[in-house]
Amino acid sequence: SSIFPARAAGYFGGTIVGGMVLDWLPQHGNILIAAGVIFTGIASWLIPSATALWQIMALVASSGCAMGLLDTGGNVMLIRLHGNASVEPYMQAMHFFFGLGAALSPLILSQTLGNGTDYAAAFYIFGSFLIVVGSSLLFMRSPQPAPSPPPAPDAAHASRQASPWPVVLCAAAVLCIYVGLEVTYGAFLHSFGVEGPPQLEPEKGELVTATYWSGIAAGRLLAVPLSLKMRPAPMMALNLAGCLLVACAMVVASSEAALW
User: Fold this and answer.
1) SS3 of 172, please?
2) CA–CA separation, 205 vs 198, rounded Å?
3) Would you say residue 8 has pLDDT above 80?
4) What is the pLDDT of residues 208-225, one digit of tens each?
5) Of 19, 8, 6, 10, the residue nearest 168 (C-alpha)
């Protein structure tokens, strides 16, 4: 279980460093994203050769840092490419592919183990794919930040009066809880299904994990057209209400059917 906090700590540091680097070198965002993808692939290749816990934790933390760079860079590049006013469906589509990849990963792992090979083959497959994709990003042009028009005098006065920090802190708190729950649940779902009350076979545990991430991918795909019709606040309220309802159902029921 100590591996997951190591990854989270690396991811936290990577997001902060990624934002600073993008502000420092705004014209080289594609290089930042490419570096994150390539380094994640290299770490995936090295993880099977680790022989001690501290080595795995160091590699996973480094990979998490690279993922933080990638996540921050990807979001910022989308905003630069499509603008603040029309980025919502593109942002939802990008995170749909995140969920799609997370859903396919357990299936690939299950097929790899089913063919008589070990976990290392899956890491090599993922690592090779990431290195190839990351290398191709080096040859793409990075979107540049749009020049900001000078604010009107009334708008400048209003911006000085209204501090953005309450909104920033509230958004940070929501993302901290949401992403923490999402990643931790996905990481421990297989262990809970196999070793917990459902007592599933390992293959079923991997399918349950894939089903969970498939649900996230489907929700994000559905959010693409919804983001064109709904405002952000009602969408967030609807999502939080659904999460609360499912969480209450999971507390009450612990059978295999309820887990699915």
Assistant:
1) helix
2) 10
3) yes
4) 888 888 888 888 888 888
5) 19
